[in-house]
Amino acid sequence: EQAPTVDIVAIGLENGEIDVLNLKYDKSVMHFQQASGVTSLSFFSSMTKAPLLLSSGADGHICLWNVKERRLHFENENAHEGAIHSAFFLPDSMRFISAGIDNSMKLWTIDEMDYSPRVVLSRQGHTDSSAMIRFYGYNSVISRDDGGDGLGMSL
Predict the structure, then answer these.
(1) Phi and psi at residue 12, to the nearest 5°
(2) Are 83 and 98 in contact (CB under 8 A)?
(3) Which of 36, 37, 48, 92 could form a disulfide with 14 if both were Cys (CB 3.0 to 4.6 A apart)?
């Protein structure tokens, strides 16, 4: 992904390597390593306010890297149950969204004091296909997957 700084990009690899490159000088400016394959990268839009790079992995981990200090700042090993296929910062916001193969989407906010993230909103459906869907009353739906787990949702 293109960084807010001109000519800087980050590239994530299947072996967990993250390289931050200066394209103008064709040079690697920093290198990070996470535990599993990199599935997405996103820079925070204001690097002067919070020099953060967000990475997600094939193992469900989310990492926040402090670009200024060139180190891992935060890691959540249980952000999702399985691979995360998308994670990105919202424009001009200390929030990011992640979505994974566990059929969930999470909205995170980052504390401006210590830059630690926490989930503020989460939506999740069945992890297996639905076996039954029924209307309940006038404004609710109930569904059940093959494993017998139920899910209710107000419309």
Answers:
(1) -110, 140
(2) no
(3) 37
Give this prediction's pTM: 0.79
DSSP-based three-state secondary structure for 43: strand
With contact defined as beta carbons under 8 Å apart, do 61 and 75 qualify? yes
Residue 60 backbone phi and psi in degrees, to 5: 90, 5
Task: Enter the tokens of residue 121.
Answer: 């909103």
- DSSP letter assigned to residue 2: B
Long-range contacts of 48-51 (CB under 8 A, 24+ apart): 50/94, 50/110, 50/112, 50/115
Beta bridge partners of 76: 62
- The set of long-range contacts for 29-36, using a CB threshold of 8 Å and a minimum separation of 24, is 30/67, 30/70, 32/63, 32/65, 32/72, 34/61, 34/63, 34/75, 35/59, 35/61, 36/61
Q: What is the pLDDT of residues 133-142, one digit of tens each?
A: 566 676 666 6
Q: How far apart are CA 66 and CA 76, in angstroms?
A: 15
- Determine the Cα–Cα distance for residues 113 and 102; give it in Å rounded to an integer: 31
